[in-house]
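Readers of this paper often ask what the protein records in our data store actually look like. Below, we set out a record of this kind in full and without editing:
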Amino acid sequence: MIVTEKNKHTLIGVMRSKEFADQVNEFTSGRDDLETNVQIVDNPAENAANVVNGGADIIIVEGADASEETLQYIEGVHARASNCLAFIVLIPEATTASVRRLFRAGVTDVLSSPIAANEFNAALNTAYEAVTAQTTAPASGGSGAILTMAKTAGGIGSSTIAANLAGAIAMNTGKQVGVVDLDIQFGSLGLYFDIATKMDVTDVIRAGKRLDNMLLLSTMQRHSSGATLLAAPTNITPFEAISPEFIERLFSQLRTMFDVTIVEAPTAWLEWTGEVYRRSDAIIPVIRSSVRSGAGAAKLVDGLRDFGVTDPNFFVVANKFERSFSSNDRLQKICEILDTKLAGRIRADDKTAHECADIGKLAIEHAPKSPMAYDISKIAKRLQKRLGLEQVAAEQPRSGRTLNLGPIFKGRGG
């Protein structure tokens, strides 16, 4: 165990290969707030308990194999490391069952061979950022804004807009932007970000009361835009897997971790989706100039009222807009149903939408001069202004959390 000065973090690595040990030392070099102890031993998993001896903020153990004996050793080490905030395991040819077993034991990240240097470095960076966030987050909870997408019809493009808005805000402001796909049966945000996720919402659900910033961040993956995604499961999951209590815990953590979080909700009306809308600072209905969308908007208002959300803070976006008098008239009538004004329009741009869907790219990155990307960027800037987020130069490094929402949104608590 490392004894450190106040406000310093600790890292212990028990490795079997010099290559990974050197990479850890290189990563920690120059980080004055991180005390490091990296040792190379013949049987890391077996000897880790003696090296760890009580724990550290970050623990890294390299296992020789994925055998039952190795897994038991690692579980034992984690059980003894009471003050550990991030626990990374490197293990050859880990099976899905062994990975999930380690996650259930409390391990926050598992890397299976072959392990690329950039993959290991990303895991180290995630652990370091999470430890820093965990130790600096205010005890009373955070003030980050949570914005929830609301579909008024199927196939309306809500996921496309959610992904591109999150990416645009992250790129424009350098702030911490989270994206959470709670459509646990048909969610597809991972495809829009071209992220093959190792973990998803179900792993967070299984954490139960153990859910904290470190565990949550370990299940999320950062996109090149700077947005960080918690993906929906790849298999259809029963809606009953989520409870209102889980939403309360999840949103509380998201507020401390991110300046802004964009949530994709399912179209199903359930007790826990009501909790999602109640705890959101703003709801983003996606509408189209159609009778079907108008009917969906009316159902949205009625459903929210049933859940006790009688004065929703709407930010309405019209998608696939085609300029005409009749189109404008229908959009105006839908906004009257929602009792608010239209916040922005996204022009119909099937070419860009199909290209981006086929290659898994955001329109703001793949085709920044397209009508679709231009309109989304414009809407993102309006959201930023409403949130009090300043536009920054593209080359400016990302800053820490500095958002102070104050009365900008009618917050409903986390």
